[in-house]
């Protein structure tokens, strides 16, 4: 039985709205050894349609940090250069702790709660300066002692990398296009900024399914593209090195990437069921883009697990 035939019913279910409000897949793409082996779209979506990343953008932010590390412009183990923290205990927070979601800052990552910091940051009082909003949060745990998923930490990182690159939003856009999207052929990819000129790297990138897959392929290839090293040696391993997380977390966490239960595998996750899953031992990159309600995020993940397991281990 072919791989596609083995999961045919799952694929059909992925593109209908039954059970009500669960499927709502917009694009599903599987790449093996850099070649697309499965590609399907909803009736209102084309292969060129750009769709929102939500938190998958965090993994793109991690890549940009890697480029600056490769250039010798950023030491992730040094205290994060945040002016608001210069004279208080937050000055001890490192960029690595921000990447690992272990900053110790208070941040409520809840999209349906009235006390949500992430909603206030993206759509409320913080929307014009997302990094300033997040950096103003108080320290509630010693840095490096507690894992707490927080979109605010990503936007603090984005202010830091934006300051290093310089030139405001245009400077950041040009750098990302020249150093990341351009070499990978991600011609559809765009990133969004707040009024202060900070890339909203917690949430707002748009690209086609194929271009998201190209980004995943860079990580499957250990940061090397067309024979040229783009990300520092060891940077991909840094992304998937486990950081301690609470027992209730279904997936482990590395450095702005989630960990999946296949040897060396890891994934970018986004609200509404967005996923880029990198599975090195099967030479796979899977992309799923959707509008699945977050309480039903178990459904697309189960589908992606079945898809992965339809491909034999090759390495």
Task: Please tell me about this protein's structure.
The protein is an alpha+beta fold and 315 residues long. It has a single domain (3-309), classed as DD-peptidase/beta-lactamase superfamily (Beta-lactamase). Helix content is 33%, strand content 15%. A seven-stranded antiparallel sheet has the order 2-1-12-11-10-9-8, with helices on both faces. It has a three-stranded antiparallel sheet with strand order 3-5-4. Strands 6-7 form a two-stranded antiparallel sheet. It is globular. The protein starts with a helix and ends in a 6-residue tail after the last helix.
Q: What structural category arises from helix and sheet content?
A: alpha+beta
Number of helices: 11
Provide the CATH top-level class.
Alpha Beta
CATH topology: Beta-lactamase
- 3D shape: globular
Q: Approximately how much beta-strand content do the residues carry?
A: 15-25%
Task: Compute the number of strand runs.
Answer: 12
- Unreliable stretches, pLDDT < 50, 5 or more residues? none
Order of strands across the main sheet: 2-1-12-11-10-9-8
Q: Helical residue percent?
A: 25-40%
Architecture (CATH level 2) name: 3-Layer(aba) Sandwich
Order of helices and strands: HHEEEHHHHHHEEHEEHEEEEEH
What distance lies between the first and last C-alpha atoms, to the nearest angstrom? 21 Å
Radius of gyration: 19 Å
Output mean pLDDT: 93
């Amino acid at each position: 039985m072919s791989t596609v035939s083995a999961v045919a019913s799952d694929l059909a279910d992925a593109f209908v709205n039954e059970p009500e409000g669960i499927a709502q897949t917009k694009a599903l793409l599987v790449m093996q050894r850099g070649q697309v082996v499965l590609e399907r779209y909803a009736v209102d979506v084309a292969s060129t349609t750009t769709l929102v990343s939500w938190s998958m953008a965090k993994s793109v932010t991690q890549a940009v940090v890697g480029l600056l590390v490769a250039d010798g412009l950023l030491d992730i183990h040094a205290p994060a250069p945040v002016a608001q923290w210069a004279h208080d205990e937050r000055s001890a927070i490192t960029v690595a702790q921000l990447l690992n979601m272990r900053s110790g800052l208070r941040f409520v990552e809840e999209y349906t709660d009235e006390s949500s910091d992430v909603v206030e940051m993206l759509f409320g009082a913080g929307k014009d300066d997302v990094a300033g909003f997040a950096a103003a949060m108080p320290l509630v745990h010693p840095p490096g002692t507690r894992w707490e998923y927080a979109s605010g930490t990503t936007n603090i990182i984005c202010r830091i990398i934006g300051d290093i690159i310089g030139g405001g939003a245009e400077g950041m856009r040009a750098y990302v296009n020249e150093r990341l999207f351009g070499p990978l052929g991600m011609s559809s990819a765009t990133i969004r900024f707040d009024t202060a000129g900070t890339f909203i790297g917690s949430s707002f990138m748009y690209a086609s399914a194929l271009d998201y897959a190209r980004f995943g392929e860079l990580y499957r290839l250990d940061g090397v593209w067309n024979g040229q090293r783009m990300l520092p040696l060891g940077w991909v391993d840094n992304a998937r090195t486990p950081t301690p997380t609470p027992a209730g977390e279904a997936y482990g966490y590395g450095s702005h990437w989630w960990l999946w239960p296949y040897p060396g595998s890891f994934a970018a996750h986004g609200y509404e069921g967005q996923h880029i899953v990198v599975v090195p031992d099967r030479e796979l990159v899977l992309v799923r883009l959707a509008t699945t309600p977050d309480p039903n995020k178990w459904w697309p993940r189960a589908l992606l697990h079945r898809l992965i397991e339809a491909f034999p281990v090759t390495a």
